[in-house]
Structures are given as structure tokens and as C-alpha cells.
Amino acid sequence: MTTLPRVTGEAVARIEARDKVTGAASYAADHPLDGLTHAWPVTATVARGDITAVDDSEALRDPAVLAVLTHANAPRLADAGDPMVAVLRSPHVAHHGQIVALAVAETLEAARAAAGAVRVTYDEQPHDVVLTADRPGLYTPDEVNAGHPADRRRGDFDAAYAASEITVDAVYEVTPLHNHPMEPHAATAVWDGDALTVFDSNQGSTVVRSTLAALFEVDEADVRVVSEHVGGGFGSKGTPRPHVALAALAAKAVGRPVRLALPRNRIAAVTGHRAPTIQRVRLGADADGHIDALAHETVTQTSTLTEFVEQASVSSRMMYASPHSLTTHRVARLDVPSPSWMRAPGECPGMFALESAMDELASACGLDPVELRIRNEPPVEPDSGRPFSSRHLVDCLREGARRFGWHDRDPRPAVGRDGPLLIGSGVAASTYPVWVFPSHAEAYAGSDGRYEVRVNATDIGTGARTVLTQIAADALGVPLDLVRVSIGRGDLPAGSVAGGSSGTASWGWPVHKACTDLRQRVSDAGGHVPDGGLFVRADTEQEAGGGTEYSRHAFGAQFAEVQVDTVTGEVRVRRMLGVFAAGHILNPRTARSQFIGGMTMGLGMALTEGSFLDPEFGDFTERDLASYHVAACADVPEIDVHWIDEDDPHLNPMGSKGIGEIGIVGAAAALANAVHHATGMRVRRLPIHPDTILLGL
Amino acid sequence: MDFLRPASWEEALAAKAEHPTAVPIAGGTDVMVEINFDHRRPDVLLDLNRIGELHDWEVGEDTVRLGASVSYTRIIENLRSVLPGLATASHTVASPQIRNRGGVGGNLGCASPAGDAHPALLASGCEVEVASVRGTRMIPIDEFYVGVKRNALAPDELIRAIHLPRADGPQQFSKVGTRNAMVIAVCAFGIALHPSTRTVRTGIGSAAPTPIRAKAAEEFLAAALEEGGFWDNGKIIPPAVARQFAELVSGAANPIDDVRGSASYRRHALGVMARRTLGWTWDEYRGNERSARCA
Amino acid sequence: MRVTFTVNGREQEADDVWEGESLLYVLRERMGLPGSKNACEQGECGSCTVRLDDVPVCSCLVAAGQVQGREVVTVEGLADQARERGGRATDGTTLDQAKGWQAKPHGAQAAQPGQLAPIQQAFIDAGAVQCGFCTPGLLVAADELLERNSSPTDADIREALSGNLCRCTGYEKILDAVRLAAARQDEVV
């Protein structure tokens, strides 16, 4: 057998790119179906209450309107255990913007007109939507997102903090943030008897399939979910969202195919968002900057529908040596839209707070912020006492500092000037845990020398289809173009969700396993695939299902340079650099773009993206892309990315850590720290508005 | 809904007379958003795209007659030398796609306080040519904006053209926002020096219920320039004068707090923009004067 | 109402068009051209960018009735248009790059190799495509830029693409792709 050069690690071009550049790639709302009808949501105009009446007479006057579905007349869904998809089941309104009715019509226009003509009467109840750090009703959840305990205590924080020579005590705030993937949530559903086909935009169609089967009480085998191309998600499509349940429900009710493409300005209320956080960080250190006491206390909110607790304090448990540690989460259950995952939930807002506080500590100690972090490098993971499987934070910091020219800067704040502009630079550390979930895969060798691999991965833009093909080709020992990988369909071998930066590891592992096995079988057959082919199945229920004796995280260092206009208060980013250590990078081309994309979203979080819950209406005021400012290309400067290749044997056969989220972690802190260096002013609330800067200067 | 496609201006006026509630649509960049978002559902849409003359402009000796539908892109490409303030403002409108479709007529028709053209129009001292089957009239820009998103048009009238004085001096436009592109103004300011009449005109956007002029600031500055003989001696404007001008501009605004910015920030930013744009225009004026003298 | 116009060089007709309907809706739902994407419906994101009589516009903000008798080019027509202009699609691709995209296409309607416009090929080669939802609009805008300006500066590129939002890439690879297409265009000329 000849040995082919490995293709993992190569910058292979995206396999489905051709379909995407020609417009041939079909997304959830792109599938033409005979007899297709359209749905449009009616959303609650009160933040809390009960529906007392629905008048659809006006709406139904148009013969093109097929139905107005409400809790009173829609086929009743079974309980699938997820309140987000328990649509049209109850007259209760839990938040403004909740979908209370759905108009279905022959055309989109008729559906929209009908939705506008539906009159809903409410018994409105007073609502409570304002989060403050000292409000009544804050409680300690049983656990926070990702299954972490709400509180952890090590040593005696209070005593150690009181005894510390140098202390920092600051409160950091992050407003609600919206995922806004470019593709709004959409689903097209059609029933054939008891069999349901759904074209859906999601980050994992295996779960969509099982959820729909549970909701409609049909066999999973009868539910087909197609999600071959998904226009981004960033967490907001991580679990089934209301649109898919509604589309299937409506299709059942009208006996026709139904498409529900949520308009952009409705998705913030019903598909999740990053919950706001108010985080108090206290650091106690000696004069040399060695941290003795660290407290990170997060106050956040969830909805009355679901309990989702942004685990913002969690990264403070493992980042730095901290003999005395207190990390807590308190949450208020408010009449607000349900929060959910948004790129690096927990780490992203949490590291904004911790890494801003580290910068404050560096100032207080008169230490270089890079050096301060190096001094607090822990020998083992502080919270669990487990060794790190690999940890190259210090290398990232040093390499980043070298590449960025960090040590050339004048460390004093507010001294870098260019006319009316103040120039400053900042650094922050970055981290993201290694997740891996059990998945299944099949590999098939044809007698024609071609291979097919099947795994229900989802490519939300990450490059999953491409990197899985690379993994398969290497494991099979064949050229890429002989391997076809099928993903994005609920009937494929079960794959875990495209979330938690876990996809490549979770799907790649069973693919690797199946392909390695298949290669052996082909070899056993004398290198000759018999007629009818060879077929193997593999899963990682054992390998990925259990715990690990190692603490596994990716790390990184973010550097940023900003200019602050002293006259208008406008902050503009001049350059950013990220250096990451995330195991083996399997495809530098797709990886680089993932890192930069994450950093860009972090730039948005720092400067342009912010949302506000109107206390009166109880809904977001920034609901569309005109008011919620995603960074445009003119805002994004030169962003440079490098990585340190890690040889970590404790991960998976590919040696990879996830890369989809770490790019956003620490980016906002690096920028806020740069603003401090430029101006001498600490901005502890994001986004950094010109108003805030001017008031402070 | 009816969709009317008049082929000529006369047909358009007749249609508007017959359907006074008809909503004119040209570039569509405002009207279509309202329809897409179901904010309004007009009985009649009156498409003005087929009326060629609305896309034309004429540069006369003293004035530029700008068809209501001339796109911002065309203004930037063709009219920078004669309408520098408006061209600069046009450049900050949204995105290339929007600038390719939108025109000043639409900005005037919507009369949103955030419309980017308004400060430049106010500073230029233009007149808006509106017409109906009853006839044509010229509305001075100062009388055009009558309330929040309301203008001085009668229900049967359409905007045909804008008559702008050719720039007789430097003009500037400035806008503050959170992003570098695609941003609705937190607030905006336009200034035009008019050496021929020794006057200064200004325009403020997004800082009051309607686009407004800062008249007290204009009068103060004109008086100060006159008194110091600055128009003739071309000296640098004393900082105290610039400061006072900026304060008066801030004071003219009547902004609100909203998600885009606080009222106090808007006032501050207006002062900043007033001082900066005054500096730029005056530098340019002095430069022009000097080269004129040398020539 | 009935609307007749030319799409990607072919005359098309749509009946029973609602008067408030956008060009985007007509393209996607009535003409079977779902390449142009609906992502904001307010002209903020550029995902629906098409050329209307050569000019890039947000098709979500053009009323269907306004395109009567006019010419529209969508992402689906970019390759044909480039061929008419005499552009060459596959220049300068390295072997490694080629390997990736020659793997069997996944979509049934995928175009055949060699049928791409230079800007499409450059987007593939530069890795400018991620989730792909902003891609069609960006391609149309970038293609128009290169048609009008064969050697754009970075500022020109940023300016031309300032109306197209991308949530995945951070734009760097997109700028690279436009630079690449411009460079290849130079080689050919």
C-alpha cells in the first residue's frame, strides 16, 4: 500500500463552496414544494398575561387564508420536555414577542395580512423585566449552563481577600446580545400520512428529529429532517426552536406543505439571546501580583419559560492560580424572552469581566499585564485539581506579545497621541473548554474504489463537511476525491449538535473510527473491495460518553490596538491579533476564518452590539439589523491570527480542540483594556459607547 | 393594493390627484421597508421610476436643478464640485446598494429627522419644486419640514425637483455613528459658507423632531465674521468665536435620549461637529482666497 | 398584476404578483431563483443584492412592479455574465485548491466545473465562503466592483462591500477573494 500525504492539516478548500457561490446550495427556505403555503406569526403585545380571546374573523375573510392557528384550535402538541417548542399550547403569555398565533395562507402576503388582522385580547398582568444586582427574587440555580455547579468555594475567600496587599473590586456589565446568524430561522414542513419531512435551519437535526417525533407522537423513523446547508447559528439554532414546531404543526393542520421563515425582527424574542450579566470580580494579590483570593459573582436573568443560566463565573474557576476562590451565579426569573446559547456562553461575558479585572490588577500592581498572567499560571486546574491535558496560555501570551510588538509600548495610560486621537493597546487571555459528545458514523467502501461516509454532522459554516472528509480520507488512506461525506440529515447516523466547539471532535471521532476499521477490512480483503462493497458502523458512546482525568481547555491570547477620538468619543479598532493553542489545527483555511470571525464578533460585542430591554414593553428595542449593529467590513481592521500547534494525546484521535468559540473569548476585554490604555478610563459596561467615553474624558 | 406606473410627469400628477393617498415610490429604500415590515399597507403605490426627467439634473449658472430621483451615487459622481455639501452627505448614506436607488426626493418625502440629505439641504438654502394638477410651487427648504416625519406637501402634490444654489463657498457635512458604514446618524451637521452674501447656513439632523437650522449660531457667526473683516482678511477664526458658534449649534438642538445616543451626547457631538466643520470650511475658504489673490 | 422582465438574460413573466411584493420575493418564490437570500428585508445586510440594469441594489427594497421591462442579474447568472464579458473562470488555481472543490459536488444542481465567474472561483480559493448565506449578495457586489474597477484599492473594496454584512468570516477572506480575483483579472488582460 502506498502512503499518501496526510490531508488533515492541509488548507483544503470548502467542499460545498461551489454550491454556495452559484446559489445552488439549498437552505431551509429554499426548497420548492408543490402546493407550498406560507405562515406568518402573530406575536404577543404584552409581556405577561393570558389570552382571553382571539378574533380571526377579519383574517379569515380572505379565501387565500387557510387557517389562523392559536392555542385554542391548533392540534395539541405532546410535551417534548422543551418549553421553547411547546408552541400554541397555552393561553399564557410569558413574554412580549412570544408567538401566540400563526396565520397560514396560499401566499406569504396573504399570511402576513391575515396575521396583521388577527385581534388578540389579553388579560394583561404586571410584568417584571428589569435586572439589577440587588433586586428581590434572585436565587441560586441548581446548576448553570453546561452542567456546572452554581457556586464553588475553595479556601476562605473573605479572609484571604481582607488580608491581600493589593485588591481590585469592580462590577462589569454586558447587555443582552443577539446571535443574528445571517440566515433567520426557517423551516419548511410537509406531511405524508404520519411521515413528516422538514427542511430546517438548525445546528443539529438529530435532536430536531427526536423532538418533532416526541411533539407529534410519531416514530423517529418517520421524521425526516434535512439541514444540508445552514446559514450560521452561533448557538441560536442549537436546539429546536419554535419555528420548526410551528411549521410542522401548521402543515398538519392545513394538510399542505408550510414554510415559516421568521422575519429578522421576530427572532430575538423567540430563538434565544445572550442573557445580560452583572458580574462582580474581586481579586486579592500580593505586591508582586500573585493572586491569593479571587471572587467572581454573576447576576443574570432567565425567563419564566425556561431556566438558562449564563455560566459567566465558570472560567474564573480554572484560569489562574487562586488558593481562595468564590465563584457564584444568581439568577432572576423575569418576564423576558428566553435566553439561550450564544457563541461561548459563559466564557465570553465571563472572560470580559475576569480579563478586565486582571488588567486592573496589573495597573494596581504596576505590572505588565502579560507578565501578571504568566505569574498566575496554575500548575494544575485550580478547581478540580486535575492536570491540564495541555495548556499553552503562556506560550500564546509570549508569542502574541512578540508578534504584536507589545513590549515596545509605553505602559503608561493616556500617553499615546496622534492629534486628537488617543492610541492604546490591550491584552486579554482567552479560553474555551474541550467538549466532545457521543456520535455515530458509517463508512462504506464501494467496489469502484469510492468511499462514502455518513454522519449527522451539521455544517453551519464551520467547514465540518470539509474537515470530516479530510479526517475520513486520512483514516482510509485514500485521496480526498474518492471520499464523499454525507451530513445534515436526521436519518443519518446520530450526530451531536454543532455547538460547544465540539463538532469536529464529536463527529470526527466516529468517522475516524469507522474509516480506520473499514481500511483494515479492505486490507483484510486483500486490498480488493468485493462486489456489494464493505460497510462498517462505529460510535463513540464509550469514548466520548464518560469523564476524563484531565482538565481539557483551549487557550489563547488576544491583543488589540484602538484609537479613541477625544473630541467625539468614537472608538475605532486599529488592529487585533489572536494567538491560540487549540490542539492540532485540521484545516488552516477554515480554522483561520473561524478564529477571525470569533474575534470580529468580539469586536462587535465591545463596540457596536448591544441590546436593551424596554422596561415598559418588556422586549428588546434593537430587534433588527438597522438598530442592532453587527460590525460591517469598514469597522473591521487588520485582524491577524496565529496558532501554536499542540500535541495533546488526551483529546481524540485527531488531537483537535474546538475552535469555533474561543475567538470571541477575551476579544472584548482586550479592546476595553486597550481603551483604558489609550484614555486612562475603565469602561466596565459593554458596548463602549461614545457617550461613555466622552463623559469619562 | 394598486400599483400605478405613470409614464410621464403629467400622468403621475393626474394619478396623485385621483388617489391622494397613493404613496409615491422611487428608490423604494424607505417605502419598501415599511411595506416589508407591515408598518404600512398603502392602497396605491405610485411608481415614479419610469419618469425619466426625475433622474435628470441641470447645472445652471446659479442653481442646480436636481431631479427628485437622481440617486445619491449620481450626486456623488457628478455634482461634487457644484454641490459639495450634498455630495459629502450622500456619501454617508447607508450603503452602495442604497445609494444606487435612493435620492433626495425620497429623503424629503419621508422627512425623517435622521435623513442624511437634510442638513446639507438646509445649509444650502434650496427650494423644493412640488407640483400637482393644480400647478407648481416652490417651497423654501426652511418651510418644508413641518413635524415629525411630516412635510409641507399637500395630498395631491409630488416632489419634482430640488433647486439648490450652486456652492459659492466651502460646504461640509459630518455625522456621528457607532459604525463606520451602514449607520443611521446619532446626529449630523451640515454647514455652508456663502461668501457672495457673506452669510453662513447650517443644518442639523437627528437632534430635534425635524431637521432644523441653528439660526442663532448662523447669525452670530455671520456677525462675527463681518465685524472682524474675516471675509476679506481671511484670518483664522478666533477660538472663542468657534467655541461660541459650537455652543449655539448645540443649543439649537432639541434632542432626545434614545438607544442610539443620549441627548447630552448629541448636544456635545453637534458642538464638536460644528467646530470641526467650521474649521474645515474656513481653512478651505482661506486657501481659495489666497490662491485667488495669487492668481 | 403581471410583471415581465429579463433575469440572467432570459425573459421571465410572473402573474398574480402582489403589488407590494419585492423583487426578492418574485425571484425566490416565483422564478425559482433562491440564490438571493432574504435576511433582513430592510436593506441593511446586502444578502439579496442583485443587479438591476447593471446597478447593484437590494432586491428586497425594489417593488416587483418597478422592474417591469428591466434587466436583473442574480448570483445564478454571474457565471454566464462573466463569460459574456470574456472573463476566465479558473485561472491561477493551485493543485491543492483544486483538489478540494473537485470532490463530488453535494448539491444536485451544482454547476459544472469551469463554469464559474472569476469572483466565484476566487471566493472558493480564498476561503471566503463560510455559512454561505451572505455569499450571493457579496459576489454580486464584488463582481460589479471588478467590472467597474479592475484594480481596486483596499479602500475601494471595503467601500463597495460596505453594504454587505457577514457574521462568520470577519471579512478578511472576503477582501482576499476580491484581491485575488482582481489580480487574476490583471494576469488575463
UniProtKB/TrEMBL annotation, chain A:
Pfam families: Ald_Xan_dh_C (PF01315), MoCoBD_1 (PF02738), MoCoBD_2 (PF20256). SUPFAM superfamilies: CO dehydrogenase molybdoprotein N-domain-like, Molybdenum cofactor-binding domain. The keyword Oxidoreductase applies. Residues 22-126 form the Aldehyde oxidase/xanthine dehydrogenase a/b hammerhead domain. Keywords: Molybdenum, Oxidoreductase. InterPro entries: Ald_Oxase/Xan_DH_a/b, Ald_Oxase/Xan_DH_a/b_sf, Ald_Oxase/xanthine_DH-like, AldOxase/xan_DH_MoCoBD1, AldOxase/xan_DH_MoCoBD2, AldOxase/xan_DH_Mopterin-bd_sf. This is Xanthine dehydrogenase family protein molybdopterin-binding subunit.
TrEMBL record, chain B:
Keywords: FAD, Flavoprotein, Oxidoreductase. SMART domains: CO_deh_flav_C (SM01092). Residues 1-169 form the FAD-binding PCMH-type domain. The keyword Flavoprotein applies. It comes from the Bacteria. InterPro entries: CO_DH_flav_C, CO_DH_flav_C_dom_sf, Diverse_Substr_Oxidored, FAD-bd_PCMH, FAD-bd_PCMH-like_sf, FAD-bd_PCMH_sub1, FAD-bd_PCMH_sub2, Mopterin_DH_FAD-bd. PANTHER family: XANTHINE DEHYDROGENASE SUBUNIT C-RELATED. This is FAD binding domain-containing protein. It comes from Streptantibioticus parmotrematis.
Automatic annotation (TrEMBL), chain C:
Residues 1-78 form the 2Fe-2S ferredoxin-type domain. The keyword Iron-sulfur applies. InterPro entries: 2Fe-2S-bd, 2Fe-2S-bd_dom_sf, 2Fe-2S_ferredoxin-like_sf, 2Fe-2S_ferredoxin-type, 2Fe2S_fd_BS, Beta-grasp_dom_sf, Diverse_Oxidoreductases. Pfam families: Fer2 (PF00111), Fer2_2 (PF01799). Keywords: 2Fe-2S, Iron, Iron-sulfur, Metal-binding, Oxidoreductase. Signal peptide: none annotated. The keyword Acetylation does not apply. It comes from the Bacteria. Coiled coil: none annotated. This is (2Fe-2S)-binding protein.
